[in-house]
């Protein structure tokens, strides 16, 4: 992979001027094994086969390694004892089975270096690969370490990976180990509570075979430290497998700017549409955002004037715009709105799509999967069924639930509570993807 992976670099933008150590060999001596402090809460407690802490530098940052990780290609961490402990004890993600590695292969792609190409029909929803980071470094350490010390500890860390993993690491874009991390890493928040202090940079050497496309056929997500890629539509033999390095629901000029910030020209099919098609695409993106905001806004005002078709229209626009990697929140919202308006067939259809899309985009543990399963299995028994969102004046009295059999009508407080619940839920879904992306940007 010879291109940047900018999505993950946002935290590093200010590093550009950081002094870089020279790669030269005048400092062949290994870094002295610093007398590291064993007071870290979990020092020395990592479960086998984890090794370390060994080399400790700048504060509490030490080297840890797991020779058996990534199918014996090894994993190295440069981090604090606490984060090492977190990483070493994350539950194994066993629920998804990746496809056999001979289903796709690396091949030269015109203008892009190498990329993955499907060797057979890969069906929508198939898990392409799941990997642990080969090389994971605490962002603070990557930023703060003295360049010459860093160069050395990075070399030592790299030497603990298998030959194959080392070769893959070194074949990535970037001049020197540090630059390769800058240009190819994914940002990973280790602390499950989301504490930003726990931001790490992870390099997944096998993942570097995915080139960028603004309308990718593969979605990726990182759960704890596991990187999972899933096909979001059928991929035919000979087609390239792509992921998006940026948030794709944006106008072409915005997407190109974001990619340029990281030094590369967007030449994907969506960026090279003719001017008519580009105008149509940009207009659709604008309308998608407008409609999402409208739904969110109406939901926040008690759902007045919401129309059931709004949910379906959004889904159609997402599909037309080929936003196959971002469908889950849209399907969830459409299913709930149709259920709310008592359209059983549509609610069921979208709930079924939602279950699949949630599984692809967020994994089998996704929060809303259970609720969408229940909705698909028994629309009329679902809490959202037939809720008429009413105007404020009537709210107290006319809360009407249930055209379904055996449904109680709920009035007063219980009803109002349910109404709040559905409003929050749909309102949130409506803005979720956009908000998530904005939040990500705000983190910079
Ligand atoms: C991620 O790690 C946390 C903490 O170990 C754990 O509670 C959670 O279940 C993990 N998530 C998944 C999907 O395994
Ligand atoms: C709800 O049920 C009560 C009796 O339990 C009935 O008086 C009332 O009209 C019903 N409300 C609606 C909106 O159906």
UniProtKB/TrEMBL annotation:
Q: Does the keyword Signal apply?
A: yes
**Annotated ranges, domain SET:** 102-246
What is the annotated signal peptide range for this record?
Answer: 1-21
* Composition-biased stretches (Basic and acidic residues): 407-444
Q: Which PROSITE patterns match?
A: SET
Write out the entry's keywords from A to Z: Signal
Kindly indicate whether the keyword Signal belongs to this entry: yes
* Region (Disordered) residue spans: 398-444
The protein depicted here goes by the name Podospora anserina S mat+ genomic DNA chromosome 1, supercontig 1
The organism is Podospora anserina (strain S / ATCC MYA-4624 / DSM 980 / FGSC 10383)
């Amino acid at each position: 992979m010879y291109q940047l992976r900018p999505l993950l670099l946002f935290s590093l933008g200010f590093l550009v001027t950081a002094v870089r150590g020279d790669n030269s060999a005048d400092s062949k001596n290994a870094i002295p094994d610093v007398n590291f402090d064993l007071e870290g809460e979990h020092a020395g407690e990592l479960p086998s086969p984890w090794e370390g802490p060994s080399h400790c530098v700048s504060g509490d940052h030490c080297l840890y390694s797991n020779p058996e990780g990534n199918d014996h290609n090894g994993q190295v961490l440069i981090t604090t004892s606490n984060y090492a402990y977190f990483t070493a004890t994350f539950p194994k993600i066993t629920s998804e089975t990746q496809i056999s590695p001979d289903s796709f292969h690396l091949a030269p792609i015109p203008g892009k270096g190498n990329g993955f190409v499907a060797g057979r029909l890969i069906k929508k929803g198939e898990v392409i690969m799941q990997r642990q980071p080969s090389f994971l470094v605490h962002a603070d350490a990557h930023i703060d370490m003295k360049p010459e010390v860093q160069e050395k500890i990075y070399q030592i860390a790299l030497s603990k990976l298998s030959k194959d993993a080392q070769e893959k690491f070194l074949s990535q874009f970037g001049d020197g180990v540090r630059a390769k991390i800058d240009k190819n890493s994914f940002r990973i928040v280790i602390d499950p509570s989301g504490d930003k202090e726990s931001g790490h940079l992870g390099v997944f050497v096998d993942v570097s075979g995915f080139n960028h496309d603004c309308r990718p056929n593969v979605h990726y997500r990182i759960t704890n430290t596991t990187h999972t890629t899933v096909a979001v539509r059928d991929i035919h033999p000979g087609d390239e497998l792509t992921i998006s390095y940026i948030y794709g629901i944006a106008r072409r000029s915005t997407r190109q700017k974001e990619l340029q910030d990281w030094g590369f020209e967007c030449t994907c099919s969506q960026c090279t549409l003719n001017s008519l098609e580009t105008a149509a695409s940009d207009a659709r993106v604008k309308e998608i955002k407008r409609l999402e905001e409208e739904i969110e806004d109406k939901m926040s005002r008690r759902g007045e004037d919401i129309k059931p078709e709004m949910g379906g229209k959004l889904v159609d626009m997402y599909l037309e715009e080929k936003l196959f990697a971002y469908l889950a929140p849209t399907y969830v919202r459409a299913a709930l709105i149709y259920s709310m308006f008592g359209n059983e067939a549509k609610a069921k259809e979208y709930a079924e799509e939602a279950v699949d899309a949630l599984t692809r985009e967020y994994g089998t543990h996704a929060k809303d999967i259970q609720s969408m399963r229940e909705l698909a299995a028994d629309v009329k028994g679902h809490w959202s069924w037939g809720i008429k969102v009413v105007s404020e004046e009537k709210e107290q009295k006319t809360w009407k639930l249930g055209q379904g059999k055996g449904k109680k009508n709920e009035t007063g407080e219980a009803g109002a509570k349910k109404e709040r619940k559905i409003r929050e839920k749909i309102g949130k879904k409506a803005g979720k993807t956009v908000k998530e992306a904005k939040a990500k940007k705000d983190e910079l």
